[in-house]
Amino acid sequence: MEVLRRTPQSKLSEEELRLAIQVYKTTSEGVVILDATGKIQLVNPAFTAITGYSAEEVIGQKPPILKYGRQGAGFYANIWATVHDAGKWQGEIWHRRKNGEIYPTWVTVSAIRNEAGSITHCAAVILDITRLKRVEEQLHLVSKVIENTVEGIVVTDIHGSIQLVNPAFTAITGYSPEEVIGKNPRILNSGRHDAEFYISMWASIHETGKWEGEIWNRRKNGEIYPEWLTISAVSDEMGKITHYAATFTDITERKSYEERIVYQAHHDTLTGLPNRTFFQNLTSQLDHAKQQNQMLAVLIIDLDRFKGINESLGHSAGDRLLQGVAERLKSCVRDGDIVARLGGDEFALLLTQITSEKDVVRRVRHIAEVFKEPLICGSEEIFTSMSMGISLYPADGKDMEELLKNADTALYRARELGGGHYQFYTPEMNSKAFERLALETDLRKALDRQEFVLYYQPKVDMQTGQIVGMETLIRWEHPDLGTVSPAEFISLAEETGLIIPIGEWVLHTACKQNKAWQQAGFSPLRVAVNLSARQFRQTDLVATVARVLHETGLDPEYLELEITESIALENADRTIATLNELRTLGVRISIDDFGTGYSSLSYLKKFPIDTLKIDRSFVREIDTNLSDAAIVTAIITLAHSLNLKVVAEGVETPVQQAFLLKQKCDEMQGYLFSRPVPVSSFERLMAASTKGGSAND
After folding, report:
1. Where is mean pLDDT largest: 7-11, 216-220, 478-482?
2. CB 216 within 8 A of CB 225
3. Are 45 and 24 in contact (CB under 8 A)?
4. Distances from the Cα of 128 to the Cα of 52, 380, 660, 664, angstroms
5. Is 340 within 8 Å of 276 (Cβ atoms)?
6. Torsions phi, psi of 463, nearest 5?
7. 3-state SS, one letter per residue, for 329-341
8. Which one, 157, 342, 589, 692, has least CB within 10 Å?
């Protein structure tokens, strides 16, 4: 628009005038010519395109036709004052198009003066900066995002020199912009990654334009931390890479959380030991042993009598016991060995540095020796032994799953031998384990299939020889195996929990049969039913006994419940409470196998019991072993001093009978009188007894 400011002395050539008009008509900026009064004299096509107004609509009008209320009158007065004083003004003005749309413009207003210096016209050039403002706003937004994002941002040039970092970069790394601008990002290297790692990273960036992954870097204070890093190549319009932009997030907390999750998934929360999942996945130890041609041992350890301790002292004490066992086991192992808790009271050990089976035996015996000392649980001292099953690598398995399975098989055999034993795995055990599994499967079906029957063994009065009672004994009539004795399946029923429904069936059937015999005219007898440890610990035992008596109609005085000495003393206070409730029902109580446990006489006198049964192991050699004879005599004397009756079990010879009669034993049972017999045979015994004959006639 310089041509518009020329004076008459500088005449335009015809060519210059033609070019000026061409520019005026084709330029993308709107051009407005105003006279000295401010009225529009001339507009170019670009003005129409920008404002929407045609030349006819605005010529003769004043610029306020374009005015938008965002700027006040003082704003425009300042423009004209500046033009008059300085000859020019430029700045941003918001205008309104003909369609009402508000838009931003960049306006330059220039004064055109005559020879006298007076303003005759003004020329205004209008540039629509809508797109520019949008870009500016976007850039401002991007700037705000960069400033406020929690991700660190680094921009480098093509040579890797840092050009820009954001506040999050400083917060994460500890480096201020001044400390890193112009430097290479290698300043952050932790040293954890080798050259191959970075070569692979840059190869990916050059091939795909991007790389992302986890990387460990170093803060200014020297702390090494994990971050999730994304690096992108930035290209110009021609596709040439000009910069690299990296964004990263400090994932320290996430890594810590992930590590906690992994730890929790592979460790026992109570003891802090590795768990079954961790133990099953111990492949590196096996691989190393294979490479070094070494032997390993896998031990599965089961605490003896843990259920009784847990239920008698409470779960809190049980938890403390398990924690104590864990600590003691850790004290028994060497570097490289692993202790794990598989669940419940089962622990596992992986023993390394093994040279022979004898070496394993020494290690196992050392563990057993350590556990001879009591464990302290609160105010209680608890002595606990353990059963152990052992498998060896590579002889007994090539992977941890097989080694654990075979060690578990050996553990079952160790349990069968009694508490405090260990057992190495042998291939023959698998067939026994299969037989046990098959027996368990059949046992679960036996009750529904009505395969159980009850046998009865008479109790005989020592003085008269008459039957005064009977003990109930269960037999399993297996369809394939024939008669299975209780010794073969009761422990399995106890272990699997099947003893509860089986025990209730025995109780109900015995009471029902006894009532039937009474109704058939036989002399009323007391029927004795054994309660297992698991049955006796039932919270609804008393309610179950009461219900059975009600359902069968048997008078409570004709039911006797037998518990072993060890069951009675497992939790003496709880035993006393349960026995008192049972006695309230009217049933009688006897202690079975007396003398085989560790009796506390102070508790024995508190137990609400009626009878002591001398175990057959003392009766067997009563005529040849002075110690057994003394023990039997002492038990009879003790019982009578406590006003209890005494029953001797396992009486098989007249000599034994004579000794017991001399010591004034009250009742006997055993093969001398009768084996356990089915219902029909027992009825014949009762009939003979009723006619006045002795049971062994």
Report:
1. 216-220
2. yes
3. no
4. 12, 91, 125, 126
5. yes
6. -80, -45
7. HHHCCCCCCEEEE
8. 692
Amino acid present at 633 = T
Helix (H, G, I), strand (E, B) or coil at 647: strand
In this structure, what DSSP letter does residue 67 have?
B
Residues 433-475 have pLDDT tens digits of 667 777 788 888 888 889 999 999 999 999 999 999 999 999 9
- 683 and 664 Cβ atoms separated by less than 8 Å: no
* pLDDT tens digits, one per residue of 287-330: 888 888 889 999 999 988 777 677 666 778 888 889 999 999 99
Q: Is the distance from CB of 397 to CB of 391 less than 8 angstroms?
A: yes
Alpha-helical (H) ranges within 28-129 are 45-51, 55-58, 73-86
Structure tokens belonging to residue 141: 């937004």
Q: Given its phi and psi angles, is residue 477 left (phi above 0), alpha (psi -120 to 50 degrees) or beta? A: beta
Structure tokens at 253: 């907390």
Order across the sheet with 30-35: list the strands.
40-43, 30-35, 119-128, 102-113, 88-96
The distance from CA 250 to its chain's CA centroid, rounded to whole angstroms, is 27
Give yes or no for a contact between 449 and 505, defined as CB atoms under 8 angstroms apart: no
Radius of gyration, alpha carbons of the chain: 50
Do the Cβ atoms of 640 and 664 come closer than 8 Å?
yes
What's the pLDDT at 429? Answer: 72
What are the φ/ψ torsions at residue 220 (nearest 5 degrees)?
-60, -35
Sole residue written with tokens 């009850």 = 454
Has this prediction a pTM greater than 0.70?
A: no
Please check whether residue 146 is in contact with residue 119, taking contact to mean a CB–CB distance below 8 angstroms: no
Strand partners, 94: 104
Residue 468's H or E segment, with its range, is strand 467-478
Which one, of 346, 420, 429, lies nearest residue 391 by Cα? 429
Q: Which residues contact 606 (CB under 8 A, 6 or more apart)?
A: 572, 576
Cα 299–chain centre separation: 24
Longest dimension (CA), the chain: 165
| C-alpha–C-alpha distance, residues 101 and 68, integer Å | 10
- Is residue 568 within 8 A of residue 536, CB to CB? The reply is no
Confidence of residue 286 (pLDDT cuts 50, 70, 90): confident
Q: Which of 18, 89, 29, 98 is nearest to 58 (CA)?
A: 98
- Name the β-bridge partners of 215: 227
Our CA dihedral for 645, 649, 655, 660, rounded to 10 degrees, sits at -10
- Is there a cis peptide before residue 678, judged by omega within 30 degrees of 0? no
Contact 548, 519 (CB under 8 A): no
Secondary structure in 3-state letters for 71-92: CCHHHHHHHHHHHHHHCEEEEE
Residue 500 is given by DSSP the state: H
- Beta partners for 648? 614, 668
